[in-house]
Amino acid sequence: MMTKSDLTEVANYLLAQKQLPAMTEALEALLTPYEQEEVIHRLQIFTLLTKGLSQREIAKQLGVGIATVTRGSKALQAGKFHPEKLDAGKPL
Fold this sequence. Notes:
Blueprint: H1 4-15, H2 20-30, H3 33-50, H4 55-62, H5 66-77
Helix pairs in contact: 3-4, 3-5, 4-5
């Protein structure tokens, strides 16, 4: 069973990547193509929720289940996701 310590180890590894190419490479090494797609969808869900789209619209647009969108909505409402950080790494 995964522990919070296990997740901390993953987070520390990712934080050690100081440049975008290194982070991309680390994510490609850690995640299968399917898992990469799932993470991308999760970020897209958060983005679309913060833009005010309905959960049903998001599910249809991304081709994901409504439960996946609802999970993202609950994480957003619980303050576990910080939408202001979505654009933090993008060049101005």
